[in-house]
Design a protein that fits this description.
By secondary structure, the chain is mainly β. About 25% of the residues are buried.
Length: about 170
Amino acid sequence: CTPPACPCSMRARITSSKSSSSQITYKDQAANSVEVTIDSKISSSVDVRDFGALGDSINDDTVAFVAAMSAATAGRYSVYVPSPSQGASSFYKITNEISIPDNVSVFGTGYGSYVKQVTLKKNLFRCGNNTSVRNLRLEMPANVSVGEDLVNQNAVYANGKTNVEVSGNVI
């Protein structure tokens, strides 16, 4: 496959004759991106797109989100959910509950970071202790009655957990 048409091509360019990750810089190809060292890039957050999330409203992004959470757990990183590149109405399609491990934060860019649970009876995020969910647009299926029982699901579920921050979200 050949960039830029190749879907597996990198979103950033890394070039250097230096040998240490503290000397090599990274700059995302997005407008207004800031150049940082590789060390600082990998020590702060993981991006759901690096694990295969497309945010095209069609393909299931659940596995990519779960993989990003697992990677974040190993280094106590944050998980970044950027705005999907397909446009303002595009979303990350989730079909199962995503567990946010202890000491992991999930954050986005605001209204554009659109995550949608499409399966009834499933929470979107289930928080661990010392977690946060910030600056995301979260959508759930409408609550429906099944017989006489109301089917409830939560965008962010944190029952019994401590030190959970939910802020700046549109639900």
